[in-house]
Automatic annotation (TrEMBL):
PANTHER family documented for this protein: OROTIDINE 5'-PHOSPHATE DECARBOXYLASE (PTHR43375:SF1)
Protein name: Orotidine-5'-phosphate decarboxylase
EC code(s) of this entry: 4.1.1.23
Domain Orotidine 5'-phosphate decarboxylase: 16-261
Origin superkingdom: Bacteria
Pathway note: Pyrimidine metabolism; UMP biosynthesis via de novo pathway; UMP from orotate: step 2/2
Similarity field: Belongs to the OMP decarboxylase family. Type 2 subfamily.
Catalytic activity: orotidine 5'-phosphate + H(+) = UMP + CO2
Keywords, alphabetical: Decarboxylase, Lyase, Pyrimidine biosynthesis
Organism, scientific name: Pseudonocardia tropica
Amino acid sequence: MSFAARLDGAVATHGPLCVGIDPHPALLAAWDLTDDADGLAAFADRCHAAFAAAVSVVKPQAAFFERHGSAGVAVLERLLAGFAGSGTLTLLDAKRGDIGSTMDGYADAYLRVGAPLGADALTLSPYLGFGSLEPALTAADEAGRGVFVLARTSNPDGAAVQCATTADGVSVAQRMVDDAAARNAGAQPRGAVGVVVGGTHEHGLDLTALNGPVLVPGLGAQGASPADVVSRFAGTAGPVLPVSARGVLRAGPDAVALRDAAHLLGEELASTAAGSH
């Protein structure tokens, strides 16, 4: 199945919520886990027990695994493999972006068939030019994976670059959306090139032609409410995937409590969306 078809199936079954897996040091401590590879492994195991076959997408943040070196990356590999086939898709948040042979290397690591750190999808940074992503886009196509390209992120500092206008008066963020839309044109049920658009502010983007999914960080601890997400992304063509990490993970370390927190937030999103129609 294509990435788009797998995502549609997961969202139809579990709803659109994407749960971030962010094992930062303070959260490891809050779960009474050590800030080392053993604590990281225990954290990952509890997240797998809580979220596999329970939510549509999980988003491990690569940095919190990489900070533990090779042992941490091994935990990440095991976590990704554990979700494979569960009906819960994995979106690895690594924000990779470079040029030429270096981009080829990232594509080999994360996106090609048999990639050692292969997830269902990967976040990419296009700010060396959207065309620099071509090796990653090609590898993702060949392997049936998806990508999410940064467009208008939730952090305030992003505006200086992303809201700047190009020579033809279009914002840089809109150009990223338009380039993704061109890549997705004609794909059925839709394309596998999504964009990342934060839910913490009015984004001002035209997403109607994207024909792909939109990842929406910022739900919960960063300040965006379910009502914000519903109103700011009304009319978007394609799945809108709100992300919550801290808002769900603070219910841990018990796996049942984590799963219940994700379901409760998912129900709030669904009821808010239903009430807006």
